[in-house]
Amino acid sequence: SQLLNARVSEFNFADENLTNITASLTQTLEIFSLDGSAIQPNIAVQNISLKSTSTTAFFSAQTVSGSLQSGNIQVEENVSDFKDDSNTEVQILINVTKNNSSSGNGNIGFVLYQNDKFFQSKNYKTHYNHTKQI
Fold it and tell me: What pTM did the predictor assign?
């Protein structure tokens, strides 16, 4: 979370070490998201353990004064549609399909970065000083 507070100018995206560190951090968070959870001002990691009757997995997030907070991050199952809420900034609805050969229940992990500082494009440079949630 603290790394995402750093100025973009502190990141040298041509540096291969930074690329490797970012890739490693992203992979670690992906693995952690399947059975762990954490919410910090700039990052939210949540998961949902699906039941055999689950048809959807839903993730939603709101920020308060530009920060992610635990009371405003939700994961649910069997949600039929997106929520009609103008305060919710991120909504992800995943349809769960069943595979006859799979056994047991599954997990879905969500990682929300408050900004896109780790994901700068080498080809595209934005001309505006804004960030996107990833």
Answer: 0.82
